[in-house]
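Go through this chain.

——
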Amino acid sequence: MHLTPILLSLLTATTALTSPPPIRRDTNTTRPAPNEIKIASVVFAGSGCPAGSVSGNLLPDSNRLTLAYTSLTAETGGGVSAREARKNCQHNFKIQHPPGWQFSVSRTGFRGTAGIPRGLSGAARVTFYFSGEMGRIVSEMNIRGPYDGDYLKVHEFSDATTTWSPCGAEALLNVNAEVRFVPVANLTETATLSMTSLEEVELGWKSVTPSAAAAE
């Protein structure tokens, strides 16, 4: 497990990453003030994120996260070991906020590169869920060969399709990013699929009444 490099960057509220094309947002949505939202800790681990390979930012409005990867790459074929066909990075964010609020992931975008020969397909997938809660939401992109270039996936979740944090003053948001192939026997060409960034993970907020919070 790795802790500090990404946490220090997230708390600086700066970013140099390129964002996906803008999507219209509801400017009337109420939420806590930016200075009341804090990432208290970050833990990440996985086959696709060795130490020093992940950087991130909490954007200035304290409502969007951006992560960048240098080692989240799956490979198959060309004599590559089968264990290289799936890579993942599991993140755990402890997010603190004022009592009386719940949050969810309302939007996400991820991008990367792929070199996939004909007859093979790969998948890039991001899963979000809260510790102790049953619900989870998924954004996935399947890429079929022949393909050689960049890709971008943008996904918005409605209030009805997303999952909400438990009531309270903090929640543990888990994010699992992965890229994978189904290994093919005797594939002579090498296929690669990378996720280079998870961009603008946007949080949606809703207020909860004291009675609802107490019921939790």
Remarks:
- Confidence is low (pLDDT under 50) at residues 1-28, 211-216.
- The helical segments are 4-10, 210-215.
